[in-house]
Amino acid sequence: MKKQNQKSLLEALAQGKLSRREFLRKSAAVGLSLPVAGALFGSSVGFAQAGDGLDQVVWISPRGTLEVLDDYNLWVPEKLGYFEDLGLSVELQPGPLEALAVTRFVATNQADVGYPSPGVFLASLDAGMDIVMPWEMMVGQVFNFAVAPDSPLNTIADLEGTTIALGSPGWEVIVDPILVEAGVDPSSVTYLQAGNQASRTVETGDADAVLTWQGLAAQWAAQGRNYKYILGREFSDHPSNGYIIRRADLEDDQLLDIWERFFRGVAMGFEFARINPRAAAQLTYEEFPGLQDQMEPQLAMDSLLELAESYYGSYRLGQGYGWSNIPGWQNYIDTVHELGQIQNRYDANDVVTNQLITEANNFDAEKVAADAADFNLDEQWQQVEAPDVLATIDN
């Protein structure tokens, strides 16, 4: 029955009876791989127009879930109508945990913009995917390691010879360069592939540490996992996750216009949250009943602020939102190439670009500030503590 349903779904897509948005929603239910669908048809689903004339953009997460505070910069423009005002219909998809899925979906036109780690991005380039990163989410390291509260492990050097749990086998390309940068031999480490159960392996004793990232500490604390953290930003200068698109999109004036508008909306989301972080947290928190079951508003606020500490790095440097440190990327590329993780030593200028940053940051700042100031917080969110660590940021 499942195979029959998959066939019907593929036939509907091929005959134009099913939109990409509907296809993305229904494919998971019948166990259909989107890259397989792209290969079967040998054609692009690509950008589409919604029935209301808006340009559709599909964004895909690398986490396998959307129920996190991490993407507040997208939920704010979605829920406040900024994307729509910019002529866009933006759909956020959770994506599978498989490491290269987020880039493969974009490269095969099953999604338009993805959010990979640097290691996954470069591995995808080596695999022949013609993608480029035009938007840096964090200037600096986002990844951390969680260990038990009473663990003797306190520094990155202490991870030598330990067992580290990962959510996906492909995440080894994330950890290896971090270890090498810190002078730790990756071959001394044992990786435990634990999938969605990775966060539990430290408390069960199956792993000494688990790979994590900014924003998860508050969420895990809400689940009763009060770990100790070895913070990447304290010892690593490598870049972090960013948004990738198809390289060819930058060579098409119409698609270039879509991306300028999309990233302008993203920048507006960041600006709104900088001025009123409580409102950004409330908008994201309210989107997911499951998230509300996991944590109280204060913990959600803490998670957002933990992320924001890194998200506003390029803004602090006076470069606006989304800017990439190209020399930093070159250093990272050289490191992973010497490690043997990638076959090609890329020129950072060829795979990372700041081409869209000026236009993305060319938004109506007065309107966003007014919207942030006028936002009507719910009573419970009025009580949430949120130090003005964002509103006081000035580039």
Task: Tell me what the structure shows.
With 395 residues, the chain is α/β, with parallel strands linked by helices. It contains 20 helices and 11 strands. The protein has helices at 2-14, 20-27, 34-41, 72-80, 82-85, 101-107, 118-126, 172-181, 201-204, 216-222, 253-275, 277-285, 289-294, 297-311, 313-316, 326-338, 348-351, 357-360, 365-374, 379-382, and strands spanning 48-49, 55-60, 88-93, 113-114, 131-136, 143-147, 163-166, 190-193, 209-213, 228-231, 242-246. Strands 8-7-9-6-10 form a 5-stranded mixed β-sheet. Strands 1, 2, 3 and 4 form a 4-stranded mixed β-sheet that branches. Helix 4 packs across helix 12 and helix 10 runs antiparallel to helix 14. It is globular. The model is unreliable at 13-17 and 33-45 (pLDDT under 50).
Largest beta sheet: strand ordering: 8-7-9-6-10
What kind of sheet is the major sheet? 5 strands, mixed
Give helix % range.
40-55%
End-to-end C-alpha gap? 58 Å
Share of β-strand residues: 5-15%
The tally of beta strands, per DSSP, is: 11
Tell the overall outline: globular
Determine the mean pLDDT.
86
Radius of gyration: 21 Å
Discrete helix count: 20
Please mark out the parts with pLDDT under 50 across 5 or more consecutive residues, or reply none.
Answer: 13-17, 33-45
- Secondary-structure-derived class: alpha/beta
